[in-house]
Design a protein that fits this description.
It is built from four helices and 26 strands. By secondary structure, the chain is mostly beta strands. A hairpin with a 7-residue loop joins strand 21 and strand 22. Bound molecules: ligand MTE and molybdenum atom. Molybdenum atom is lined by residues 45, 96-98, 204-205.
Length: 371
């Protein structure tokens, strides 16, 4: 039964389970050191019960219906998607809007993600734009909302677990995909088999898994977890712990902020005095690209500029690497600070407390003992 499928898949995996019903699991920061995140190291964030289609049951009947503000509603089989449109492979960051939630004080409800609700696999599929253009998008189109096959934790099959979306302009961006492959293989059950959305640069909640329907709408979508406080932040900064009026004072999260991880070395390792210290990680942003990364070993007094590689494509994370020699023995902390193409940098402390605990992009930190 679907409920027995909750946690079984990832229990011997490198992931740390935050909850098993529904399954939420993240990756330790030092296990995110691969340029391309392998499937077993990609976090899992499920709002409900994994549907049977995820395991291939009923695959022959599966299709994706697109309706609403389009020239002609149409249902696409997997074969249609595979044969009628050009295939693309893009490396795209997938990051939960709640990644880093554990840093907020006062604590906010929801899974207490630390650094690991992020990854950057290579996704294969088609551009949503090509599929939409094939049936025509009406000038009245404003937003695209997705519907999926997963089941509400209450077991009520009529109730959508999560039905979010994005503005039509984002739907028509070259990098917004309908994907059926991750790292050259069919999507795994937990990551959305047979077909999922990838809406890079937006919180991963926009990247619907186990797709059933896309509704092109003449207004902002109002499906499950689109309204109220879900995936919204206050329009203006508020004091930690403040009450915020759900719909009036909050806005839907769109672009994700500039952020980085330190993927090597692991925190709390020992390093030999006078030997060159090598540190590396990845940086990404919902904007165009990463411009610079700096690291500090003395709480922000001295900054070392990292070498930053170009991304494989827009919305892929970028490798950064730095090296230096510690001034002497002792306890050090390494902090990394990325800056993106808008000139925005990661803050030093936890920024912008908000009731949902979203968008903590404070600098990542590790400890090093130098002997
Ligand atoms: N159908 C469906 N799509 C979904 C979700 C879900 O619960 N159901 N979770 C969303 C959220 S909140 C996140 S962060 C990402 C997680 O994707 P992953 O589990 O493949 O890492 O999927 C998104 N798409
Ligand atoms: Mo998420």
């Amino acid at each position: 039964t679907p409920s027995s499928l909750f946690a079984s898949e990832k229990t011997d995996s490198p992931l740390r389970i935050l909850s098993d019903r529904p399954l939420n699991a993240e990756t330790a920061m030092h296990l995110l050191d691969d340029e391309v995140t392998p499937e077993e190291r990609l976090f899992v964030r499920n709002n409900g019960i994994v549907p049977e289609i995820a395991y291939g049951k009923g695959l022959e009947q599966w299709n994706l219906t697109i309706d609403g503000e389009v020239g002609k509603s149409q249902s696409f089989t997997l074969k249609d998607l595979k044969t009628k449109f050009k295939f693309y492979q893009y490396q795209l960051v997938l990051e939960c809007g709640g990644n880093g939630r554990a840093g907020f004080f006062p604590q906010t409800p929801g899974s207490q993600w630390t650094y690991g609700a992020v990854g950057c696999p290579v996704w294969g599929g088609v551009r949503l734009k090509d599929v939409l253009s094939s049936i025509g998008v009406k000038p009245s189109a404003v937003y695209v909302g997705y519907y999926s096959h997963d089941i509400h934790p209450s077991g009520d099959k009529e109730k959508a677990v999560i039905s979010r979306g994005f503005p039509i302009a984002k739907a028509l961006d070259d990098m917004t995909m309908l994907a059926w492959e991750m790292n050259g293989k069919p999507l795994s059950p937990l990551h959305g088999f047979p077909v999922r959305l990838l809406c890079p640069g937006f919180p991963a909640s926009a990247s619907g898994k186990w797709l059933k329907r896309l509704w092109v709408r003449d207004r902002v979508h109002d499906g499950a977890k689109m309204t109220g406080t879900a995936y919204r932040v206050p329009q203006y900064p508020v004091a930690p712990g403040a009450k915020v009026e759900a719909n009036n004072e909050m806005v839907i999260i769109e672009k994700m902020p500039v952020k980085s991880i330190i993927s090597f070395p692991k925190s709390k390792e020992t390093h030999q005095e006078k030997k060159t210290f090598h540190v590396r990680g990845f940086a990404w942003t919902g904007e165009e690209a990463i411009r610079e990364v700096h690291v500090t070993y003395d709480f922000g007094q001295t900054w070392v500029r990292a070498h930053v590689k170009s991304p494989r494509n827009r919305f892929a994370w970028q490798r950064w690497e730095a090296e230096f020699i510690f001034p002497g023995r002792g306890y050090y902390e390494i902090w990394a600070r990325a800056m993106d193409s808008t000139g925005r940098m990661q803050p030093m402390v936890i920024p912008n407390w908000n009731p949902g605990g979203y968008l903590n992009n404070a600098m990542p930190r590790i400890a090093v003992n130098v002997e």
